[in-house]
Design brief:
Layout: H1 3-23, H2 33-36, H3 40-60, H4 66-72, E1 76-77, H5 85-88, H6 106-130, H7 142-163, E2 166-167, E3 182-183, H8 184-203, H9 211-214, H10 220-237, H11 242-247, H12 250-258, E4 265-268, H13 281-287, E5 293-294, H14 296-302, H15 330-334, E6 335-337, E7 354-356, H16 360-364, E8 370-374, H17 376-389, H18 393-401, H19 404-407, H20 418-432, H21 440-447, H22 463-468
Antiparallel strand pairs: 1-5, 2-3, 4-8, 6-7
Helix pairs in contact: 1-3, 1-6, 3-6, 3-7, 4-21, 6-7, 7-8, 7-10, 8-10, 10-12, 12-17, 17-18, 17-20, 18-20
Amino acid sequence: MNNLYKYFLLILLVVSINACTKLEVKNINNPDTEHVVSSPEGLKALAGGLFNQWFQTEQHNLNSPGPSMWVMADWGTVTFANYSCVDLSAEPRIFLNNTPSYRYHGNIRNYWRNMYGIITSANDVLKGINNGIQIGTNGEDTEMVKGMAYFAQGLGNGYIGLVFDKGYPSDENTDYETLQASPYTQSIDMAITQLEKAINVFDNNTFTLPTEWMTHPYTNQDLSKIAHSFIARLMVYAARNTDQTDAVDWGIVLTHTQAGITDDFAIEGDGNGSNRKWMSWLKFYMARSSWGKVDMRVVHMLDSNQPANWPDAGLAALPNNGIIVSNDARVATDFQYDSANNRPERGMYRWSTYRYARYDSYFQANFSAPVILMRKCENDLLKAEALVHLNRFPEAATIVNNGTRNIRGNLPDVSNNGIVVMNAIVYERTIELPLTGMGIEYFDMRRFGKLQDGSLLHFPIPAQQLEVMDLPFYTFGGIDPQYGVPNEDVSINGWYSAN
């Protein structure tokens, strides 16, 4: 039995038992993995917890690369070392310490483990169904469970492909004994195929999810739209540079966005109690008062008179004391002036005059409020971007002008010029999408070739996994020294170089 096979078996054991314990599966006492994957009740419970496992990893559990992506993208800035934020936002950039002893190694190790926990659980749900297990009265829930398992496979493999340089893409037919690491593109490709399988199930069956699965009674039609939008995300956000962005099949992206979400995709937050399952720590910590700030790069986008970097002379050197002057109405609703800063020894380049305030109502409700995972405008802006790449500029301009630019920003219409429209799309994405989905700001800066010089373009396989596989450690990022292939593993010629 090879090490990878044992590793996946361990993940399956832990995730299967935890899923059943949390979901209180009826008629299962002290469940083990074999029982879970061989009974209708066990398979349904496992499938019912898959999306929450993904949510916990993507939004709630800060043992993830989300916070460091946030600061590497120069959207947010912090002076706290937690989650490797200070290390990976250092100027000039330094390489990721990918060793098991690194204090924040858990931020990538646990994300990797949890995503593969989701994948292996989904695989076993499908194995059970393929072995003839029928779920629900006369098998009435079988297709719903199958669709959600395909959906979870796609999210798990897809986000491995977005975050890491390599992965172990798998499905219910994979032989773990022979599985080898492959480039991230294979994880993305498999994820898209799995999401397409989910869509096929959703489009050809009628059902409503139990509310506890995703906090809302989403129908098969709702889920189909959500899956289409996730495919568009994966296709676009997987690009590591501008050449790869241009090479995206934008016609297919357009098709998926046209079939995508028509309302914000959200779950209902369940507060800050000890038994919470649907709370976003990512939103809270990156935007909370006295913790996260808005990087001056974004302040500069809103007001070009403000510098994109904190001046050496401090606040007094900023025009208007760093207060944004802009026609964008969102400055008043989404941003809060806050000139207080701390920890100058960690670099005053981390300082800013604003914090992100859009989620304050969520915090003030003690997290018992909707948690947005994908805004309708994200799907709309991907649709507009696809139209730009297809040289359909008037249609793209119409989407931008009928969207958040006017509705929330009260900004004037843009013309049909392709460059003007694309600039407006980038601006809208920057202002509208922060902290909705993990890594969106980082993925955008990466695919537009704008990540600050020396930023890693993806994360290496975590060192602890490399140990299991008896493979040498490796890493990416940095200026001097620099690890990785320029413009493929590490950013060069980005928006800013501290050298």
